[in-house]
Amino acid sequence: MADMTDACPAPILSVRNLEVTLRTPVGDLQATRGVSYDILPGETFAIVGESGCGKSIASMALMGLLPRIAHASADRCRFDGQEILGLSRRKLSRIRGNTLSMIFQDPMTSLNPVYTIGDQLTEVFVRHGKGNRAQARERAVFLLERVGIKNASARLNAYPHQLSGGLRQRVVIAMAMMCSPKLIIADEPTTALDVTVQMRTLALLAELQKEFGLSIILITHDLGVVASLSDRVAVMYAGQIVETAPTAQLFADPTHPYTQGLIRCIPSYGTPDPDSELSTIPGMVPSLIGRQKGCAFRNRCPLAFSDCGQVAEVALQKTGEDHAYRCLRPHDSLIAHWRGLHGESV
Amino acid sequence: MWRYFVKRLGIAILVVITVSVISFGLLRLSGDLAQIIAGEGATQAQIQETRILYGLDRHMVLQYLDWAGKAMTGDLGRSLFTNEPVFQLIATRLPVTATLAFSSLLLAICVALPLGVFAAVYRNSWIDRAALGIAVFGSAVPNFWFALVLIYIFGVQLRLLPISGSASWWHFVLPTVTLSTMVMPQIMRLTRGGMIDALDSDYVKMAWAKGLNPGIVFFKHALRNALLPVVALSAVSLGFLLGGSVIVESVFSLNGIGSLAYESIQRADFPVVQSILFVLSFIYVLLTLLSDLINARIDPRIRLY
Ligand SMILES: Nc1ncnc2c1ncn2[C@@H]1O[C@H](COP(=O)(O)OP(=O)(O)O)[C@@H](O)[C@H]1O
Ligand code: SF4
Ligand SMILES: [Mg+2]
């Protein structure tokens, strides 16, 4: 196990070999396998992958919010200097909403319909002993204004149904910021919103991240979203990280065939020959039930060869400083394939 | 809020009027009242005389308006059997039934709410199964049988509680326990279902993610949302208990409105039957109105409509 030997600042979150198994009626489902990453203070780390690849499960494991049928284990899962995976519910609840907070996908359902947004904003502040009710209201007004809600002190008395989806998500973002967290996990924070509102909400997140120096895990199924917003990206497929790289490098030199496929699906990155390509990667995600051998992507991989189904496990290959991919093919041939697809020499 | 209240009130008044028309109409349609009042063996002339005496020769609409006008001043006519004012008859009997119904509902809620909450929180655990068992037992066992078992155990064997009459609060214990089993299972199951929905919701996940204590998550965030249908069911249940306590009243010799209705039907005492029907529906409508208002307090979304 390679520990952090390089001279970068201590990560705020360090995960090694996170495995989550769901005991379903039809068998054990390996929702995540060997997920490892480090998140540095003040950076935005994107986790990208198709729906069902285990992004939410991986983050819920950190929050201690897994469904009952789930079992999580990891060699390390250290947040802010503390192991959080095996932590008692009581100790974990002191971290949740405080130094580690979360933004869920659907703002229409993640606010409680029967309480005012003021109540829901202030309760987390008071819960974590940050101050009394009056101070909590003051902080709530400050943050609501900061996330762009006009007339903030009056809005505290509004109920969620009185706000639009975009505003509600701003409230949820403000709520996540109430206790000045060090890390926010945003699980598809804009998927439920209109396209125009999406971009504004993401821009807001990026602003807040810079202004308050927090770290963000941005979970999304849309690689296009992360291009301008994240510092580093992990691409997940079938419960595993198949490629991780600084964002610019991932787009410049996508190495894993799955990453290449995802990038080709982004409309603005268009393909030179629209007739020959589909807007989605053909094929289906394999079942995660039972441990499979070989590369999980082989039934959809344009570069698959005989070994891909034979090996027990495809290891992560390092290529360069902070770039790794999980494929049996050598780096050169993968890059050559990518350039060949684009008929260009970058 | 006010608009909502006025609208609800308007609907409630319409319902009361409709019910009064129906209860009035049904009894008029059930036979020639003049003949029934005049008694068996009365001559045509006597029947005709009765008809005029009671105003039964007038148009139905007039009769209804007459009855309704008097009813609004509290004059519900007189019993054909005892000649007592019906209002007074009901006024002496209703408190017994109301006490019984309220205490039964209260007991049912006190048992069903915590049980439903625990069953939902510890889903599929032994608590959940035990709660389900109690619910099935409660709905499956006939009332009179359960009443007799209670009488046998607590009244006859242990001699702990009185088993007949309404002289003291203690007299209400066994009837209350019996009657509460009529509504407890539904309230429990509805609480459980509502809690399960709420516990699986995103806003409860969010509450956990905020690090809130389990007590706050369960009772502040989940229960209040789960409560809406329970409030409505409780109001309906109370109406049901008021009208459905005949068996329990007769087993425990309580002189409530249920036994009054039973006696009056047997004696063809129409003014009494009609008035009981009307008073119960009136209370029922009031309860529904009350539950609507409580729900509007619980759920801000309702206040909009
Ligand atoms: N409560 C659950 N019960 C059973 N399977 C689940 C549950 N939650 C998630 N899964 C499964 O775990 C896998 C990963 O899910 P998830 O992390 O939600 O995916 P993502 O967030 O990437 O869309 C999926 O195959 C999904 O079907
Ligand atoms: S290991 Fe084989 S199947 Fe998997 S991505 Fe690489 S080439 Fe494709
Ligand atoms: Mg998800």
Question: What's the topology here?
Answer:
The complex is a heterodimer of chains A (346) and B (305).
Chain A: E1 13-24, E2 27-39, E3 44-48, H1 55-63, E4 70-73, E5 76-79, E6 82-83, H2 89-95, E7 100-103, H3 107-110, H4 117-127, H5 133-146, H6 152-155, H7 165-177, E8 183-187, H8 195-212, E9 215-220, H9 223-226, E10 232-237, E11 240-246, H10 247-252, H11 257-265, H12 307-310, E12 317-318, E13 324-325, H13 331-342
Chain B: H1 2-29, H2 33-38, H3 44-53, H4 60-72, H5 86-121, H6 126-140, H7 143-157, H8 173-199, H9 202-209, H10 214-243, H11 246-251, H12 257-266, H13 270-298
Helix pairs in contact in B: 1-13, 5-6, 5-8, 5-10, 5-13, 6-8, 7-8, 8-10, 9-10, 10-13, 12-13
The complex binds adenosine-5'-diphosphate (ADP), iron/sulfur cluster (SF4) and magnesium ion.
Residues 55-56, 187-188 of chain A line the site of magnesium ion (MG).
Structural class given helices, strands, pairing of chain A? alpha/beta
Q: Which structural class do you get from the secondary structure elements of chain B?
A: mainly alpha
- Outline type of chain A: globular
β-strand percent of chain A reads: 15-25%
Which value, in Å, is the CA radius of gyration of chain B?
24 Å
How many structural units, i.e. domains of chain A? 2
Unreliable sequence segments of chain A: 272-278
**CATH class term of the largest domain in chain A:** Alpha Beta
CATH architecture assignment name of the largest domain in chain B: Orthogonal Bundle
The strand line-up of the biggest sheet of chain A is: 7-8-9-3-10-11-13-12
If you average the pLDDT of chain A, what whole number results?
Answer: 89
Strand content of chain B: under 5%
- The level of helicity of chain A is 25-40%
Question: How would the global form of chain B be characterised?
Answer: flat
CATH superfamily of the largest domain in chain A: P-loop containing nucleotide triphosphate hydrolases
Helix content of chain B: over 70%
Quick one: which chains have the greatest interface?
A-B, 30 and 23 residues
